[in-house]
Design brief:
Length: 174
């Protein structure tokens, strides 16, 4: 229930399960779990059936985010070989995993634009404070959005507005 009166556990393992994200149509939930030590991305239908492991590698794969059309999932991955965070994308069924950001960029906190054509994310690629960047998925062009001495983290797209807002504590991208 929306009022919290009927809470139902749909999945639970002996390990940690975290960072759930609903599919746009509300039929599935993607989340990360670490039953084998390293975190992987899973999906499960909203009623708790049909658990599917979407990633299965030695990387720590966390923070899954469904594309607006529900066909793709972007996530951040700590590479087992370097310990660096990169962004990766895959089809919603776990196929065609592809790296979006280079090693040594420490990229994280991906979020989809409402039209699904771009991703906003946080990265330390240019400085130690970290900045917000926009990745155009068609051209693979990356644009730095912020440039200041503050720590800019976790961008958020806001629908139905134009432009973006940078406040002392956050960057909001409509």
């Amino acid at each position: 229930d929306i009022d919290g009166g009927n809470i139902v556990q749909i999945f639970g393992s002996d390990e940690w399960d975290s960072i759930p994200n609903w599919s746009p149509d509300g039929s599935k939930i993607a989340f990360n779990s670490g039953p084998d030590g390293a975190a992987d991305i899973y999906s499960i239908n909203a009623h708790g059936a049909q658990l599917q492991r979407l990633t299965d590698d030695r990387n720590n794969n966390v923070m899954p985010r469904w594309s607006p059309d529900g066909k793709k999932i972007v996530f951040q991955s700590m590479l087992s070989t370097t310990g660096e965070w990169v962004l990766q994308i895959m089809n919603a069924d776990g196929s065609n995993v592809r790296r979006l950001t280079p090693v040594n960029s420490s990229s994280n906190a991906p979020t989809w634009s409402p039209d699904g054509k771009k991703l906003a994310f946080h990265s330390f690629r240019d400085n130690d404070e970290g900045e917000i960047y926009i990745l155009d998925l068609a051209s693979e062009e990356v644009t730095r959005l912020t440039d200041n001495s503050a720590v800019d983290e976790v961008p958020l797209w806001l629908p139905r507005k134009q432009g973006f807002e940078v406040t002392e504590d956050s960057v909001i991208i409509p």
